[in-house]
Design a protein that fits this description.
The chain has 322 residues and is α/β, with parallel strands linked by helices. The chain has two domains: 173 residues, Medium-chain alcohol dehydrogenases, catalytic domain (Quinone Oxidoreductase, Chain A, domain 1, Alpha-Beta Complex), CATH 3.90.180.10; 124 residues, Rossmann fold (3-Layer(aba) Sandwich). The protein contains nine helices and 16 strands. Strands 3, 5, 6, 7, 8, 15 and 16 form a seven-stranded mixed sheet that branches. Helix 3 links the parallel strand 9 and strand 10. It starts with a strand and ends with a strand. The mean pLDDT is 95.
Length: 322
Amino acid sequence: MFAVRIHDVGNPDVLRYQEIETPLPNANQVRVKLRAIGINYIDTYHRTGLYPLPLPAILGREGAGEIDAVGEGVDAARIGEHVAFVLDAPAYAEYALVPAHRVVRVPDAVSFEDAAAVLLQGLTAHYLIFSTYPMKRDEWCLIHAAAGGAGQLTVQVAKIAGAKVIGTCSTEEKARVAREAGCDEVILYSHTDFVSEVKRITNNRGVPVVYDSVGKDTYEGSLNCLSPRGMLVLWGNASGAVPPMDPLTLMSKGSLYLTRPTLGHYIATPEEYAWRANDLFQWLAEGKLRVRIDKTFALRDAADAHRYLESRAAMGKILLVP
């Protein structure tokens, strides 16, 4: 099979499209013939070494396709089943080996492309809104990068929960996308101080929660947007890692909470994984959730896809197709 691997860390040029041996499933594994592969910011962290992987490594942690082979202990009737997975197998390849209990069935009403586009970012949106800080109806929240792939899904899930959403983005075009996703208010942080705008919108009360995937460039302002005993949910580093922080800062700004969650801890059990994935697929089938696929690249062009992702020009999900 062909796969995209890295033998060293660095810029997108380290991504190599190579022919390697097609793997055979071991006991309790399924082999998925991939039809669509999701690209996520965490892939760039693996590529640059911010989150190191043993080398050489196949990148990617999200894909959808059909089961084409099973290992011992897995019912052969599952061959042909449409499935998706996240985190449990490298995905920048034509085939992936996944533990049988860690794939989720994709309903007929959901395409491979939508399944690969929604799973990692959609599961993230689900745990952020329903578990990390459970949003209440008519409660305000601030969501940074609201026009990105993850941002749009987080906005939509927040609206499903009944929340009122302030989104930030950098351009008028992105503001339009954020409003289409459901933002009640949109702040162009390139033109306006987002802290002052949040205070204006909330009558100087601030918001009880900020979902911040940007990191270094926004975290200080995010803290200043919070109401007393509010929570900063710092779940990404798009602008770089946040520097060490004095805990007394949280006290002085209103006895605030700070958390740095990650998806794996919120889909650790089969039951929780199925709950979140089934919600996403049901919302997709019912039209309550929309996935915006910004651009699709051939698997061999993964380096170009990474350059596009890091340009921050994308307004939706980026996919690879074998």
